[in-house]
Amino acid sequence: SYSVQLNEAAQFIQTKDDFLVVSHIQPDGDAAGSTFAVAWILSSLGKRFTLVNEGEMPKKYMYMAGSQQTILNYDADAIPLTYKYVISVDCADFSRIGRVNQLFAEDAAILNIDHHATNDLFGSVNLVLAEAAATVEVLYDLGKVLGISFSNELNICIYSGLLTDTGGFRYANTSPKVMQIAADMLQHGVKGHELAEHLLEKLSYPQISLIKRSLNTLTFDSSKRIGWLAVSLEDLQDSGASNDDLDGLVNYPRNVEGVEVGLLFKERAGGQVKVSLRSGGTVDVAHIAKSFGGGGHIRAAGCTVKGSLHEAIESVVKEVGLALE
Ligand code: 5GP
Ligand code: MN
Ligand code: MN
Fold it and tell me: Whose CA is nearest to atom 10 of ligand 1?
């Protein structure tokens, strides 16, 4: 049960030291918030740790890091060590960790903390709550079980993860518990409106330029129940945008009246296409994403498929069409 898992996870942290903390490739607000939340929790327990992600942590999330905390970028930093104790946050499966897994000792013990229904329980200890809106919600519970005092820094990480994974407290995962935790954070001085402006409202020039370009690609199937956008490598380059600037674009097709499934196709180097799937609830997009080697949640999922943008659109739209029948 969840309370047993919480106790096992607390014991993992209490009895060990010198952790490697990892999250998924191309971290979102919950992945970043969870990584830094674990750092604050470990700090308050006097534990040593190293934070690492396969790529660069987007600058917009770095306000959650303490001045003493650096997040290592696996691509740029040669880290010669291997770690015996790993804490993985917001990763539904081992492959989401990316090449950072090369830093794990062969017999590494992994604490897997997550909230994806498709989580395959790859950890030695698994703390996975599919009903949680975000991984930071699970970390809030873990912090309580550990009996730590919640610092303002930790509260900011938790609030940020809740805010981003619920789309600003709007998605179906916005449970009473989410609101209770958020209220607790606000009561302790977290500036919710400032975080919302920073994380959800503000657009950089590359972002708005990318939105302008990608809206030209908006397409619907004949039933108008599936809508999609496509972003090519050229679009990314010409707008000066980076991958994390694509966050939220998938909501444009998804939010159109009558659309059941919104899709975003993002061309990647090396002949691959990253697909974001969003459902109004009629179809389980995690199931569709899984059939392409990805995963996620019923209403929000993702996968990476081989081929051109055109090929990816053809195969994924076809599967979504079949699921809608
Ligand atoms: P996004 O479309 O924002 O990248 O991801 C939506 C949801 O699907 C997130 O919860 C994310 O964790 C999950 N997801 C995205 N891409 C993948 C993937 O390649 N594999 C798995 N297992 N989950 C993914
Ligand atoms: Mn995530
Ligand atoms: Mn998450």
Answer: 296
